[in-house]
Amino acid sequence: MSDGLQVADVVVRYPGAERAAVDGVDLAVPTGEVVALLGPSGCGKSSLLRAVAGLEPLAGGDVAWDGVPVAGVPVHRRGFGLLFQDGQLFAHRDVAGNVAYGLPAGVRRDRAARTARVAELLDLVGLPGTQRRDVATLSGGERQRVALARALAPRPRLLLLDEPLSALDRGLRERLALDLRDVLVATATTALFVTHDQDEAFAVADRVAVMDAGRLLQVASPADLWARPASRRVAEFLGYEAFVPVPVPAAGDAVPPAVAALVGAARSAGVALLPAGGVLALAAGAFVVVPGGEGAERGGADHAAGAAVDGPGSVGTVPGAASGSAVGGPASDDRHHAGAAVDGRVEVVRSRRGRTEVVVEVAGVGRVSALAPAGWTCAAGERVALRVDAAAVAGLPG
Ligand SMILES: Nc1ncnc2c1ncn2[C@@H]1O[C@H](COP(=O)(O)OP(=O)(O)OP(=O)(O)O)[C@@H](O)[C@H]1O
Fold first, then answer.
1. What is the pLDDT of residue 62?
2. CB 50 near ligand 1, within 6 Å
3. Could you tell me what percent of the chain has a pLDDT over 90?
4. Exposure string (b/e) for 169-203, b if CB count within 10 Å is 16 or more?
5. CATH code for 5-238?
6. Ligand 1 pocket member 145 (CB < 6 A)
7. What CATH number should be reported for the domain whose range is 243-396?
8. N or C: which end of the chain has fewer CB within 10 A?
9. ipTM of the complex, rounded to two decimals
10. Taking the alpha carbons of 268, 274, 280, 282 in that order, is the dihedral positive or negative?
11. Where along the chain do its domains lie?
């Protein structure tokens, strides 16, 4: 028998709606695991969460805990905790009163036990000593911490969180996402966490379930999802910004140097093998600016010579290309050389967290965001040398 939450072929349909909001979803969340439901607005994340909670009726499928269906069990009897975007604190109770509200009746009635447990929960969420604070005086982040303490108070067997951080500003959200993960891990809480923010999903969850148009597209650990998105749709949603077909092998076909460099670097770095007809997905940072243009000079030879496909799913340089900048061949395991063959035209220069990031137009690839070393900058219109960072490149099926 499986432990934890099992969602089997669940369908949620709203009256009058043309299509189901949740359309046959299967998902398991074993005890102790934190799973993020990630997807664009309207894809059905909240509907699925609410169906698990018992707040929406199932139009099909089953929800079970430890193998026992919970469909007939009322919301408050499921042993599931809920936390929403607005923690919905009780304005007429202080912090301790809000947290204590979540405690089981036995603990709530025992004054010493209640005091101790409230203090323990407030320590856990990083708000020690705030018991007597009026909740109206708390910041948005503090309010959500209190709401989290209240939700954890009854030790729910499953905590359902619906965009709990989305009302907060970005910096705070990032910090709270990490704190939230720490709290869930420290309390061994099984959790299903809805978000539309990739970074948040990756920061909080053990596994991420990517959802689109009522269906699950892929469920994997953050690292696996990032390295091996199952489809272009998933990759787009994770933030991959350019897609380049892997050249189909045909002796003598010219391959743009940037594409040759990408394929070479990806192969060298062990990116999942690229079948002929597959696609390379590039995230911001797949190209990195090489200051001083030393890469462009070396790349000049490649540029002039062009490159050619040399085997199934692989790319190499044509005979005559400078060997120091050969790309993609079995003998070339050098990312720097691979990338040094490439240059691009800067279209936009912007600053991100004090570092320069440029949008470059790269022949054969298109517009991509390239990262620059600290302290470096340039102007729109300049050509810059680029190298490939295979950590921001993934292979997709064609
Ligand atoms: N109570 C409702 N009645 C009718 N349609 C609804 C209801 N709630 C949601 N929907 C519709 O169901 C679909 C899925 O909505 P849902 O809120 O589950 O998506 P979501 O992924 O959580 O979106 P968001 O991130 O914007 O909250 C949408 O098309 C939405 O308009």
1. 96
2. no
3. 67
4. eeeebbebbebbbebbeebebbbbbbbbbbebbbb
5. 3.40.50.300
6. no
7. 2.40.50.140
8. N
9. 0.96
10. negative
11. 5-238, 243-396
